[in-house]
Specification:
- The structure is a single chain.
- The protein is α+β, with helices and mostly antiparallel strands.
- Helix 2 runs parallel beside helix 6.
- The chain has ten helices and 21 strands.
- It has a single domain, classed as FAD/NAD(P)-binding domain (3-Layer(bba) Sandwich), CATH 3.50.50.60.
- Strands 2, 3, 10, 11, 12, 13, 19 and 20 form an eight-stranded mixed sheet that branches. An eight-stranded mixed sheet has the order 7-8-6-15-16-17-14-18, with helices on both faces. Strands 4-9-5 form a three-stranded antiparallel sheet.
- The chain is elongated.
- The structure holds flavin-adenine dinucleotide (FAD).
- Flavin-adenine dinucleotide binds next to helix 2, strand 3, helix 3, helix 7 and strand 14.
Length: 399
């Protein structure tokens, strides 16, 4: 079956699949490919559009551990990110599946810059084993004029930035099995069988995989669980700015914390350059009302790029939560979190980062293979079910 057929809506001939996945972000779609690859029949349910959650709001940086290098527990996170980033490289160059050759690469490197006082901290991190292969001083021609400053050190970081919605598209087309736009009404699940009641009818599955990001909270409640026992949310207040002088992909390391003060990614629509701003600005900005967050963003830009006049650009602040597996201290997990929800037969997934989705999918597939064999005959016939659209990236959405 050609891929364009594989992701069209389908009338479920018997409503039974080996695996039903709920949630069509990067984790649900990567799991769908991985599980289908292992020979199982899979249906994926999405209540909105594919990529409409964190995936479409992400900055699309395929982190290779550099982001974590300034923090104390860098090594494990960096190693997982590095291994997963290699899975992306393989998929994007055709060395291994899924076929991500159609993914749009926005930048094949990031910049990282710091001002005089923090140089020693950064050089210490760069000297660490984690970073040596990926961070080198940037060539003068790589440094945009608005970034160049006296006393500033600029490094080139070997991290790729991709358009997350193009990932969603490629993943959706890389595996067969229905993608169905529908809301979930109820779930009855035991270790051997799950019954998912949806707005489009009932689905049965040998295993149920919850990849709904923040929406996993409601699904866990349907399974009689307390979401707070399994997951946490960490809020962000991102800022999108239109009118920047040129594309920029980089981290400004300028505080004593382990986070970049600003992380900037870019997109171009027509002749307009958009900057999407995260980092410490987005973390500390959760307490600020929208106007104050925009004022804070302008102030950060003026400090970092003294020659620019952000007053003439147009700004929007975007609130979004990161949904993650629970950690004791409420901090970011340093690997994907994949949990069997005891007694219910469901597996809940939080990849922690976009880049870690391949590792999460491998874990899910291992758990399924340990308890389920593919059942022949779970076929579906393309029909009238609504197929979800692809999302618009969060930085581009107009109110
Ligand atoms: C602002 C921001 C920037 C980020 N930047 C990066 C980055 O640069 N690099 C990186 O590696 N990671 C980044 N991340 C993290 C990364 O985006 C997430 O880890 C990843 O996208 C999570 O994917 P997911 O598929 O688990 O969840 P989501 O993308 O949130 O997908 C969940 C899907 O489930 C659907 N859904 C919800 N409830 C239901 C339901 N009841 N029934 C059916 N469907 C449902 C939603 O509509 C959604 O489509 C960023 C995150 C944020 C918030």
């Amino acid at each position: 079956m050609p891929p364009e057929m594989a992701d069209s809506g389908g009338m479920l001939s018997n409503g039974r699949f080996d695996v039903v996945i709920i949630g069509g972000g990067v984790s649900g779609l990567w799991c769908r490919w991985r599980i289908a690859q292992a020979g199982y029949s899979v249906a994926l349910l999405e209540s909105n559009s594919l990529g409409s959650g964190q995936t479409g709001a992400s900055q699309g940086i395929l982190h290779r551990g550099v982001k974590y290098a300034l923090s104390a527990q860098a090594a494990h996170a960096a190693a997982v990110a590095e291994e997963s980033a290699r899975a992306w490289d393989d998929a994007m160059t055709g060395r291994a599946g899924p076929d991500l050759s159609g993914v749009r690469v926005l930048a094949d490197r990031m910049l990282m810059w710091t001002d005089a006082g923090l140089l020693s901290k950064l050089t210490g991190a760069i000297a660490s084993k984690v970073l040596t292969s990926h961070v080198v001083p940037a060539e003068p021609k790589e440094i945009p004029s608005f970034l160049a400053q006296r006393g500033r050190s600029v490094y080139r970081v070997g991290e790729t930035v991709i358009d997350p919605i193009s990932v969603v598209r490629s993943l959706a087309q890389s595996a067969r099995g229905p993608l169905i736009r529908t809301g979930v009404r109820a779930i009855a699940s035991t270790q051997d069988q799950s019954v998912v009641s949806t707005e489009s009818g009932e689905l049965r599955a040998g295993a149920l995989v919850l990849c709904a990001g923040e929406g996993n909270a409601g699904l866990l409640e349907m399974l009689g669980q307390r979401p707070d026992d399994w997951m946490q949310r960490r809020d962000l207040h991102m800022v999108a700015a239109a009118g920047a002088p040129g594309p920029l992909f980089g981290h400004w390391v300028a505080s004593a914390t382990d986070k970049p003060r600003l992380s900037v990614t870019s997109a171009i629509t027509g002749s307009v350059v958009h900057w999407y701003l995260g980092g410490e600005l987005a973390e500390s900005g959760v307490v600020r009302p929208q106007e104050d967050q925009i004022a804070a963003a302008k102030s950060e830009l003026e400090i970092c790029f003294p020659g620019l006049n952000p007053e003439s650009w147009s700004f929007r602040a975007i609130r979004i939560s990161r949904a993650e597996g629970k950690t004791d201290a409420g901090k970011r997990p340093d690997a994907p979190v994949v949990r069997e929800i005891g007694g219910t037969g469901a597996i809940a997934v939080w990849p922690t980062k976009l880049v870690m989705a391949p590792a999460a999918a491998d874990d899910v597939c291992r758990l399924i293979q340990a308890r389920l064999r593919p059942v022949p005959g779970n076929e579906w016939i393309p029909g009238s079910e609504a197929r979800p659209d692809y999302a618009i990236p969060a930085w581009q959405i107009r109110e």
